[in-house]
Amino acid sequence: MSAQQGKERFERWRDLIGRTRAAETTSEHVDDFTAQVRRLDLGPLVLLGSSFPSARFRRTKRLIQRSDQELYHLTLLTSGVHGLRRGRDQAETFGAGDLALIDSSTPHDVHLSGEQDPGGGRSEVAAVGLDLPASLLPVPPHRLRDLLGRRLSGREGTGALLAEFLLGLDRQGAGLRPAEAGRLGAVVVDLVAALVAGELDAECALPEDARQRTLVEGVRVFIRGNLHDPGLTPPVVAAAHNISVSHLHRLFARHFPGETVAGFIRAQRMRKAHRELADPGLRDLTIRAVGVRCGMPNPSDFGRAFKAAHGLTPREHRLLADAKATA
Predict the structure, then answer these.
(1) Which of 44, 95, 113 lies closest to 72 in space, CA to CA?
(2) What is the dihedral of CA 145, 151, 153, 157, to 10 degrees?
(3) Which of 55, 112, 308, 323 holds its CA 20 to 30 A away from the CA of 299?
């Protein structure tokens, strides 16, 4: 790649990032710049997944005076190091799995650098960024002042739930319809609000609907992470979240009309089985072993449930997937 091509790539990438994160953007790798970027519109929110060489973003007073979209910027770093200086505050350093929340109305200086590649290749940063209008977050701006620029964990509690949700949106966003994306954007706002409120010990300040949607999304993530457990039932799910079974059923009825908790567990198990039986990397697993991984150790029960869900037996589905892979 020529230096001119690298510069053109950098300019295109900077333009796309700058549509929601206007800043003076520079990089030491302009001449041989390569990057990946994925944009997903979630109603009024924008999700950007990107990997790139080291880069610096300076949001100055002049830029703010020229134009301020009044956005909150949330960044989830998945690889690399994130250095942030906000206003005159002391610099903060973030690593993979950390969340950083800043606003577009305060000067900041962000330096993202990749970790050293053990293989000798060029190090890169990988991150998922979320841009949301400040007006959507149901927490007064003055309450957030001390939270902005601080390290927030994406490895536990609500932070982990939010991080997993953002990564899932980045992976699956291309297949979402606009209406679906808009609804998921509302869930993202609720999760961000729950994270912020938890950090501020202000859960009571959140609207009831926001608390419920955060809870029910946490339930769904819990179910997906425990599909291997044959004992995963509505009472077990309810106990894990310190709520009654009846309250759990009411949550699903309100936020996912027509879908029951048991039905969601069953559908997720069949989806997991469908995916794993077609995965060439899992070809050495027996069909029974796949059933066990999906929480259904009885082969007969697994076979009947799979055929009812997909119209084929597990063996027929695997053979069909193998034939497509070799065609």
Answers:
(1) 44
(2) -20
(3) 323
For the chain, the straight-line distance linking the first and the last C-alpha, in angstroms and rounded, comes to 35
Using DSSP, state whether 246 is helix, strand or coil: helix
| Token pair in block for residue 195 | 């994270």
Please tell me whether residues 154 and 279 are part of one structural domain. Answer: no
CATH code of the domain covering residue 325:
1.10.10.60
The one-letter amino acid code at 315 reads R
Report the number of secondary-structure helices (H) and strands (E) in the chain.
12, 11
Q: Note whether 126 and 118 are within 8 A (CB).
A: no
Same domain assignment for residues 196 and 227: no
Number of domains within the chain: 2
71 and 30 within one domain: yes
Tens-digit pLDDT profile for residues 243-274: 899 999 998 888 888 889 999 999 999 999 99
Residue carrying structure tokens 């944009």:
39
Domain boundary among 206, 226, 244: 206
CATH number at residue 154: 2.60.120.10
Q: How far, rounded to the nearest angstrom, does the alpha carbon of residue 13 sit from its chain's CA centroid? A: 21
The domain boundary, picked from 171, 206, 241, lies at 206
Q: What is the DSSP string of 11-74?
A: HHHHHHHHTTS--EEE-TTGGG---EEEEEEETTEEEEEEEES-EEEEE-HHHHHH----EEEE
Give yes or no: residues 182 and 219 share one domain: no
Domain of residue 255 covers 215-327
pLDDT per position as a tens digit, 15-50? 988 888 889 998 888 888 888 999 999 989 999 999
Kindly provide the b/e burial profile for residues 186-215, where b requires at least 16 CB atoms within 10 angstroms of the residue's own CB: bbbbbbbbbbbbbbeeeeeebeeebbbbbb
* Cα–Cα dist 243/88, whole Å: 45
DSSP-derived secondary structure letter, 115: P
86 φ/ψ sector (left φ>0, alpha ψ -120 to 50, else beta)? beta
